[in-house]
Amino acid sequence: MVQNPAIADIDLVSMDFWDRPEKERLADFARLREVGAPVFFPEPRIPFVRRGQGFYALVRHADVVAASRDAKTFSSEPAATSPEPPAWLSMLLGTPMVNMDDPRHARLRRIVSRAFSPKMLSKIESDIQATATRIVDDVIAEGPRDFVEQVAARLPINVICSMMGIPERIRPYVLKRIDVMTEYSGVRGALTSRRALRLLGGNLRAIMDLHRLLARLARERRERPTDDLVSALVNANVDGERLTTRELGSFFDLLLVAGNETTRNALAHGLRLLTENPAQRELLLEDFEGRIGGAIEEIVRYSSPIIQFRRTVTRDCELNGHPLRAGDKVVLFYLAANHDPEVFPDPESFDITRKPNPHVGFGGPGPHLCLGANLARMELRIMFRELFSRLPELRTVGEPVPLLSSFDNGVKSQPFTFSRPS
Ligand code: HEM
């Protein structure tokens, strides 16, 4: 329970908080920002599942930026995700680079960043376009039901799987397992021990299934390399060493989750925000090529598909004047920072012409800034162009069903409508 009576009713650890409408949560984040100093939230310990130490919530843009910049003081080890996984889990599954500091992190990032260079991205642009065209063909043939299932979930999984060389026929299997892996992500700590353990069992089974699949793919690519990302990674020689199978597995988990959920949720939030703000939608459609860049940044700012990441303080220090001790945990709430009126005038208005728009939706400035940001931007641009050019009447209808999570600002389903082109 928080000590300050003005905000004693806010509990960022409880599932009830994340189950509330987004408007109410944003209002609570505004109250937390007004406190000024980061507020501490204790976390209960759950045997085998979480350590239960608690964290300071960083909700001001300036604090999130400062902590992201100073990665030596604000470490991503032992884990940048919340709740912090127990040590045995990392031993079992390996450590993804998002949970590493330099130089280990830089070493991995150097190898994989080649796959995200402008040259590589321009190579896959036509692939993304072909997938977007196929998705819209199918939607027109099937008629509108659920935008997430029919559109938003289909593009990113196909893009990331084709980068990795995962054959089309097993992609639905992969997608199912990613959904299980991320179920209740971020709020497991608020569940009862028994429920948390049951979920963890399901999550682990899904991860192990994916690791087995990827190990098989890695063996095949070692023997017969192609031009995909798996071939590049299994054959990469890093400082004289090869990546271990566990390192590979954990990197693939990261890519599958980071490259899939985020973009899918940005697409779903994007269509809803453009529907709820008809003047902005008109502005975009008047000059799609000129305004889509600004629209994507505003969708990412406003919706913040990744709500938060965590850091551990490595030395006694001050963060913008607030004292912190070595060992303290801080959680960087990107969603709250992206609605900070100190930086974004009228933050609750969705404005695709907002300039500047220094949002932290892809992370703050620092070594962990999203590796896939330009890929995500390209996917969003191509998908929205294909949708609006062929289905200009496309709109969401009714309310989305949100994912219960403090990590992914996820959309489980979103009804939509359009008139068939004549
Ligand atoms: C709208 C879409 C996306 C959003 C909002 C998003 C958000 C983020 C955020 C907030 C981080 C920072 C992590 C930290 O500070 O610790 C991050 C890191 C990362 N993202 Fe993204 N992401 C998106 C799309 C993608 C895509 C498409 C990929 C890959 C296919 C990707 C791969 C990664 C990776 C590998 C990291 C870890 C980077 C590192 O630790 O050096 N992301 N992302």
Can you put this structure into words, describing what you see?
This protein is of the alpha+beta class. The chain has one domain: Cytochrome p450 (Orthogonal Bundle), CATH 1.10.630.10. Helix content is 50%, strand content 9%. The protein has 17 helices and 13 strands. The strands form 5 sheets. It has a 5-stranded mixed β-sheet, sandwiched between helices. Strand 7 and strand 8 form a beta hairpin. Helix 10 packs across helix 12. The mean pLDDT is 89.
Largest sheet: 5 strands, mixed
Name the bound molecules.
Answer: protoporphyrin IX containing FE
Q: Low-confidence segments, ≥5 residues, pLDDT <50?
A: none
CATH topology: Cytochrome p450
CATH domain class: Mainly Alpha
Number of domains: 1
| Name of the CATH homologous superfamily | Cytochrome P450
Order of helices and strands: HHEEHEHHHHHHHHEEHHHHEEEEHHEEEE
Report how far apart the termini are.
Answer: 59 Å
The Cα radius of gyration reads: 21 Å
> What's the shape?
globular
Helix count, DSSP H or I runs of 4 or more residues: 17
Total number of beta strands: 13
Sheet/helix structural class: alpha+beta
Write out the strand line-up for the largest beta sheet, numbering strands in chain order: 1-2-9-6-3
Q: What fraction, in percent, of the residue positions are helical?
A: 40-55%
Strand content: 5-15%
